[in-house]
Specification:
Largest interface: A-B, 22 and 24 residues
Oligomer: heterodimer
Order of helices and strands of chain B: EEEEEEEEEEE
Largest sheet of chain A: 6 strands, mixed
Helix content of chain A: under 10%
Shape of chain A: globular
Order of helices and strands of chain A: EEEEEEEEEEHEE
Radius of gyration of chain B: 13 Å
Number of helices of chain A: 1
Number of helices of chain B: 0
Shape of chain B: globular
Distance between the termini of chain B: 37 Å
């Protein structure tokens, strides 16, 4: 079974600065997807960024980028120019790429989450 | 992006009653829907996975008779908490997926049992 670990329960950053959230995972599969989700106080789950394991290039979405190290099974999220609206709980998640129509292949495995505080 | 509607957003009811939560994918046909439970400051815990037209697959430790899931169409899944008790109070979130597309989440339901 796959596991996802976020070793930082809480992180803080000054507005306009850069912060990196850590995530490691364990899997025996070679093809999979990795995600970062943001959950603000409203508790809505928002997809921040997605990475396909077969792609060597790190995914980027505006101020959000990842450092994907497949051999090390590491998937960190970097937030540049942090804004007050970035304050939220961030979850790293894993999904197998096996069988898109299969139940087990589409489920997400979440990490414990990292609570990010942005200080003005 | 894809929109998933979850209703109600907040419900308070007496112990012993049953509560139904609806999850609708508004702009795509969801072959698979997921139901999660989340306690304060914790991660999402998968309760069950349902595919349209078939029985839900429950995670270990989740009572099937307590949490009834129906996925009658490609756009609607329901979770019914039967004979709810205070320990069932929690935040419940659904998500919908189609094939390899990312899961899209509803806004969640805060359930409070008195």
């Amino acid at each position: 079974a796959q596991t996802v670990t976020q070793s930082q329960p809480e992180m803080s950053v000054q507005e306009a600065e850069t912060v990196t959230l850590s995530c490691t995972y364990d899997t025996s599969e070679s093809d999979y997807y990795l995600f970062w989700y943001k959950q603000p106080p409203s508790r809505q789950m928002i997809l921040v960024i997605r990475q396909e394991a077969y792609k060597q290039q790190n995914a980027t979405e505006n101020r959000f980028s990842v450092n994907f190290q497949k051999a090390a099974k590491s998937f960190s999220l970097k937030i540049s120019d942090s804004q007050l609206g970035d304050a939220a709980m961030y979850f790293c998640a894993y999904r197998s790429a096996r069988g898109g129509g299969e139940t087990s292949g589409s489920r997400l495995t979440f990490g414990e989450g990292t609570q990010l505080t942005v200080n003005p | 992006g894809a929109v998933v509607s979850q209703h109600p957003s907040w419900v308070i009811c007496k112990s012993g009653t049953s509560v139904k939560i609806e999850c609708r994918s508004l702009d795509f046909q969801a072959t698979t829907m997921f139901w999660y439970r989340q306690f304060p400051k914790q991660s999402l815990m998968l309760m069950a996975t349902s595919n349209e037209g078939s029985k839900a697959t429950y995670e270990q430790g989740v009572e099937k008779d307590k949490f009834l899931i129906n996925h009658a169409s490609l756009t609607l899944s329901t979770l019914t908490v039967t004979s709810a008790h205070p320990e069932d109070s929690s935040f419940y979130i659904c998500s919908a997926s189609r094939g390899f597309l990312p899961q899209h989440f509803g806004d969640g339901t805060r359930l409070s049992i008195l």
